[in-house]
Amino acid sequence: MVAPWPFAQWGLDLLGPFVKRVGRVTHLVVGVDYFTNYGIKLQFTSVYHPESIGMVESINKCILEGIKPRLEHHKAKWADELNNVIWAYRTTSRTATGETPYHLAFSTEAVIPVQIGVPSFRATHFDEGRNGQLLRENLDLLAKVREEAQLRTLVYKQKLANFYNKRVRPRTFKVGDLVLRKAGLTGFETRFGKLAPNWEGPYAVADRGRSATSWCLYSPRR
């Protein structure tokens, strides 16, 4: 999915469960702008059934990979490390856009702590008097930066699609064929956890669905 402009379309997901923190929070609500990939932490919640959607799921993976090495044996402190992980994500260049989410959102790169503690070109040549003017000049170029990032995203998505399509084996079914259905489509695995089977059935093919890749199924045992 590609948004027409920044903050026009959002992806929302629930990440968890985590070890209970103060306030009995176990899940994290994550919101991500589809255009800039700028992740926003919305709030903590204690819901039971987390569900994931689209692009947000890959960002959830980045959050988990960032939190786990910081915790070691103190798993309940995940909320304390969350801001550091999100900051790292926002200031890291993404493969799809070639830009950092922070840059696409605010037209300038964030000053990270290492640039202050260790002498860097940006910190050494900082001019407070001209800083406001330079930021306004960056805003004039922001539309072009976002347009180029969107084009790179489209090219990147096309490369992924081509790579995926090369590995897909076309399958055809006839009415009456017996098939298995992935258990995750019905939530069957949530009743038995990790020990649940990956597939359920068998089901029989009743008719073709509305699209070329969908089929209407029924249980022959009923």
UniProtKB/TrEMBL annotation:
It comes from Rubroshorea leprosula. It comes from the Eukaryota. This is Integrase catalytic domain-containing protein. SUPFAM superfamilies: Ribonuclease H-like. GO terms for molecular function: nucleic acid binding.
